[in-house]
């Protein structure tokens, strides 16, 4: 690659960024960083009808949270700026004019009603209406290919609404190349003459996208598969302008967990997982959950997104962002759809949880539980160290650890049946004695004293350990009993056992 690699992520601010959009941004970022190139964020907001307030901020915040930082974009290093297409509005008309002058585009004056009537008429005959070579010069459609130059000019000057359409070539075979999909051939006769520009002064996506990719010196276009049908037109536009086209890579679809059909927000709602990186409140007030607020670590989200369509070709599954940059290769991206696996996401989160410092996790834990507000964070960190292996989210911590902070207020019914037998009170009274006489209150000493007593008297471990655990935890769960005793201390241990004795 001789030219400096420049890629862009070009979302339209029409709502919250879907997790698939984050995957597209990630793959662009990885490719750019791998090749020492630039990653550009461009906001494609030419469709004012679909514009949603706040969507751009949401996009930027999502990328920031994931650690996918862009080199250029709105308010950042604007050397090819502006990066919002609405702010580049005045730039596109000249390119539309250029295509008209070169015979690659034409004015069309057909009203929405006329086009609707055409569509309906075709539908009634079981056909689909497409505006292209086979009807554009027949006379039914009103455009500058059939009108004289003077008639066209008069219409424009009279302020009639018009669009500028691309004149797709007839009877040509177009050869397209995609890094992921290889070579493709397209018969240009199947293409319709897409609108490039509207008389409201706004370009459509197609024109603005090609012009900007050219002006921003984009070398590789990496985007979702849903844009593959636009590739032919985009290639034709590059040809018409006489510009060198970038290389293209269309990423595979992200499929539902069942593997059938595209992943949608509804799948997430139904199966209980987010499809957005951050929580999103729509203008109508509806709230959609986000990975961040659900307790996922950004490292986990990035790692699982990387595997949606890409794999390293080895058994390795754990990749930091830096490792991904080093190993990423578009040649290893599949064209087959990538099945979304919410359980795998949790698996990654569990992994990244174990990597975090107990003290950091303790801070996060403390922040979400009012019960912990007066507790020393170093104590919380010790607790976290004992239970995090069993947790996927910081949100799981309380259920796994409340007994380190508060005495049980009730005993699990099933557990009580299992643990409380005749003689339990006597056994527990003896345990209190052993606890009280363990002067140096360490895990080892407690273990030696209590286990030693059990073996010496051939009592049977369950008879002691089950009620003891029930007394401390309120259920037959939790980490090692001796760890719990040590953590809560002698006095609290004794008082919990006494409380149990009162119950039996
Ligand atoms: N604005 C388009 C989108 O919303 C960009 C497609 C492309 O990358 O060319 O996804």
UniProtKB/TrEMBL annotation:
Keywords: Aminoacyl-tRNA synthetase, ATP-binding, Cytoplasm, Ligase, Nucleotide-binding, Protein biosynthesis. A motif ('HIGH' region) lies at residues 11-21. Residues 4-347 form the Glutamyl/glutaminyl-tRNA synthetase class Ib catalytic domain. Coiled coil: none annotated. ATP binds at residue 265. One of its GO terms (cellular component) is cytosol. A motif ('KMSKS' region) lies at residues 262-266. It is found in: Cytoplasm. InterPro entries: aa-tRNA-synth_I_cd-bd, aa-tRNA-synth_I_codon-bd_sub2, aa-tRNA-synth_I_CS, aa_tRNA-synth_I_cd-bd_sf, Glu-tRNA-ligase_bac/mito, Glu/Gln-tRNA-synth, Glu/Gln-tRNA-synth_Ib_cat-dom, GluQ/Sye. It holds the Pfam family Anticodon_2. Residues 366-501 form the Aminoacyl-tRNA synthetase class I anticodon-binding domain. GO terms for molecular function: ATP binding; glutamate-tRNA ligase activity; tRNA binding; zinc ion binding. It catalyses: tRNA(Glu) + L-glutamate + ATP = L-glutamyl-tRNA(Glu) + AMP + diphosphate. Its main location: cytoplasm. Its EC number is 6.1.1.17. GO terms for biological process: glutamyl-tRNA aminoacylation. Belongs to the class-I aminoacyl-tRNA synthetase family. Glutamate--tRNA ligase type 1 subfamily. HAMAP family: Glu_tRNA_synth_type1. NCBIfam families: gltX_bact (TIGR00464). Monomer. Catalyzes the attachment of glutamate to tRNA(Glu) in a two-step reaction: glutamate is first activated by ATP to form Glu-AMP and then transferred to the acceptor end of tRNA(Glu). This is Glutamate--tRNA ligase. It comes from Winogradskyella eximia. The gene is gltX.
């Amino acid at each position: 690659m001789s030219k400096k690699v420049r890629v862009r992520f070009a979302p339209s601010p029409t709502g919250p960024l879907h997790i698939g959009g984050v995957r597209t941004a990630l793959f662009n970022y990885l490719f750019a960083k791998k090749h020492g190139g630039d990653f550009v964020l461009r906001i494609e907001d030419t469709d004012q009808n679909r514009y949603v307030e706040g969507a751009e901020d949401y996009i930027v915040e999502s990328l920031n949270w994931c650690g996918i930082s862009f080199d250029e974009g709105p308010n950042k290093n604007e050397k090819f700026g502006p990066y919002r297409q609405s702010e580049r509005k005045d730039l596109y008309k000249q390119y539309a004019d250029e295509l008209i002058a070169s015979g690659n585009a034409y004015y069309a004056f057909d009203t929405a009603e006329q086009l609707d009537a055409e569509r309906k008429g075709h539908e009634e005959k079981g056909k689909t209406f497409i505006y292209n070579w086979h009807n554009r010069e027949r006379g039914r459609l009103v455009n500058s290919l059939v009108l004289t130059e003077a008639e066209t000019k008069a219409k424009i000057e009279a302020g009639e609404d018009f669009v500028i359409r691309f004149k797709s070539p007839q009877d040509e075979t177009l050869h397209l190349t995609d890094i992921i999909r290889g070579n493709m051939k397209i018969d240009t006769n199947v293409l319709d003459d897409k609108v490039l520009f509207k008389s409201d002064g706004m370009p459509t996506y197609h024109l603005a996208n090609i012009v900007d990719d050219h002006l921003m010196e984009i070398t590789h276009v990496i985007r979702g598969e849903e844009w593959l049908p636009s590739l032919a037109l985009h290639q034709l536009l590059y040809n018409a302008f006489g510009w060198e086209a970038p290389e293209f890579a269309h990423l595979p679809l992200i499929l539902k967990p069942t593997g059938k059909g595209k992943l949608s927000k509804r799948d997430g709602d139904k199966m209980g997982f987010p499809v957005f990186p951050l929580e999103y409140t729509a203008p109508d007030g509806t709230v959609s959950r986000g990975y961040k607020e659900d307790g996922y670590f950004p490292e986990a989200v990035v790692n699982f997104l990387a595997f949606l369509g890409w794999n390293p070709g080895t058994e390795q599954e754990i990749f930091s962002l830096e490792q991904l940059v080093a190993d990423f290769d578009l040649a290893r991206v599949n064209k087959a759809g990538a099945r979304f696996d919410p359980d795998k996401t949790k698996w990654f989160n569990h992994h990244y949880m174990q990597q975090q410092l107990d003290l950091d996790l303790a801070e996060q834990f403390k922040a979400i539980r009012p019960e912990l507000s007066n507790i020393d964070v170093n104590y919380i960190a010790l607790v976290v160290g004992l239970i995090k292996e069993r947790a996927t989210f910081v949100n799981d911590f309380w259920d796994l650890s409340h007994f380190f902070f508060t005495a049980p207020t009730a005993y699990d019914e099933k557990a009580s049946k299992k643990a409380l037998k005749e003689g339990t009170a006597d056994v527990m009274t003896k345990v209190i004695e052993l606890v009280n006489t363990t002067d140096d209150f360490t895990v080892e000493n407690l273990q030696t004293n209590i286990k030693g007593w059990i073996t010496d008297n051939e009592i049977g471990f369950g008879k002691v350990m089950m009620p003891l655990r029930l007394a401390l935890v309120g259920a037959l769960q939790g980490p090692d009993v001796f760890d719990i005793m040590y953590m809560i201390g002698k006095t609290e241990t004794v008082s919990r056992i006494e409380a149990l004795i009162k119950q039996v």
